[in-house]
Amino acid sequence: MSTAELLLSLAGAVTMLLLSVIAYFLKLLIEDTRQLKGELAKLKELFVRLEIEQDFLKNMMKEK
Predict the structure, then answer these.
(1) What are phi and psi of 2, to 5 degrees?
(2) Could you give the count of Cα atoms lying within 13 Å of 22 in the half-sphere of its Cβ?
(3) pLDDT, averaged across the chain
(4) 1: helix, strand or coil
(5) Torsions phi, psi of 29, nearest 5?
């Protein structure tokens, strides 16, 4: 094997390793984004419930 072939093989291996690391972190990022979407939906639902409860309590206080 010549020096040029060795360097090209090494560069290819390093490139493959870096692309694998990038793919792994992208996968983690996508999973975190999906998890955050779910948590955001729960927070929105909780916010709506709290608004309704607050309106109910305001109406009760006005009646007294």
Answers:
(1) -80, 170
(2) 6
(3) 95
(4) coil
(5) -65, -40
